């Protein structure tokens, strides 16, 4: 068990979870105080000691389900037992109401009609034991799993669910609920009944997923399966390649991140540097112990907050990156004297007004996407023209307190770079930074001209995910 737990910790770290040696030892200590046969207690004991961020829960759960999918009460903390062998002839605890004359053997002996009836009864009663047994038999009968076959679990899950027709089971359950009710169900009662049955069907689906996963682990090994199922944490999701589900997790992760960054920026400005000696405060502090030794006190200068100009490419290739960066900047806008936003494709438009007085930044982002006048000719990125427009209209407003953030991949579609505009910005501004959502290996390839612009900035930073974006915010002064 200790060897298995060590492998579990290694995989958590590989998945991106920060697990220290102390937390590793705490986890090993925690499981000595709970019964190993209680799987939920075992799971939450590990989670309490190893998971520090709610956004990491899903990654932890995935790794746990792989590493401990086959564990049982026979495993001790010092044991080195092999994985238990899966048997396909587990008997289903048949319900006398559903079994009929031929119901007495294992699931393989049942006809499709009997299995459908057993599934209906399990959903009707919410019988977890029957669901687990049916899941085993359904996978055996319908999934078509073969040892060594390089097929993912999703394929097996699809084949199994297709044969079970759970949608038909749900409709049958609702019909029975209507028939058994002494009076017609009200819309609310019908909704509550449907929600309850859908919850039971979801539990059945999870049992089938777990059974498929157990068999794949037994066939391929825990390390191989963990690597196959490994997904990036929300803070490591690539902005430019995030799917819909990952975008949802990013939106959830960005709010706690903004609070943390705001506190960090405020603390850094408050304690960043000391001012002149405060003689009166030094004497007052020293009186309590006779003045020896003296404890010097200083006047902290009032920190000057910079103003931020954000110039963001919102063309299709980098739109998600621009959206999350704008969201982050406005969420911590209290740490800056002013934030102004400009967006462009081949034309440029100021969108600061869309963010003023808006509680939900996503509303402002939607207005940016639908109302901003950012197309000049053909709607393909033209950084050179956009920067010329910015400099012509707003260049005189850039001053020594201004930090300019440029967001984009610098793919200019072979138009003129007009890099002199960045050079002029740098002469007047406090800082000019460029955040690029592309991997560094792709910079200056094809129509990318990052170096042409980067030569005139204070730095070009790769910002492909929230983790890299968080590191960059620490640089802002």
Oligomer: single chain
- Order of SSEs: HHHHHHHHHHHHHEHEEHHHEHEHEH
Spatial shape: globular
- Tally of DSSP helical segments: 20
Distance between the termini: 50 Å
Poorly predicted parts? 71-107
CATH class placement of the largest domain: Alpha Beta
Radius of gyration: 30 Å
Overall average pLDDT: 81
Describe the structure.
By secondary structure, the chain is of the alpha/beta class. The chain has three domains: 2-84, no CATH class; 96-229, no CATH class; 248-275 and 301-473, Rossmann fold. The chain contains 20 helices and six strands. The chain has helices at residues 2-14, 21-30, 39-50, 57-67, 96-99, 112-125, 128-143, 153-164, 166-180, 187-220, 222-229, 244-271, 279-286, 319-331, 352-355, 361-371, 383-394, 420-428, 450-454, 466-473; strands at residues 307-313, 338-344, 348-350, 402-407, 431-436, 459-462. The chain has a six-stranded mixed beta sheet with strand order 3-2-1-4-5-6, sandwiched between helices. A hairpin with a 3-residue loop joins strand 2 (338-344) and strand 3 (348-350). The longest helix is centred in the middle third of the chain and has 34 residues, at 187-220. The two termini are 50 Å apart. Residues 71-107 have low confidence and may be disordered. InterPro entries: UCP010256, Uncharacterised_CoxE. Residues 87-109 are annotated as: Disordered. Residues 99-108 have a biased composition (Gly residues).
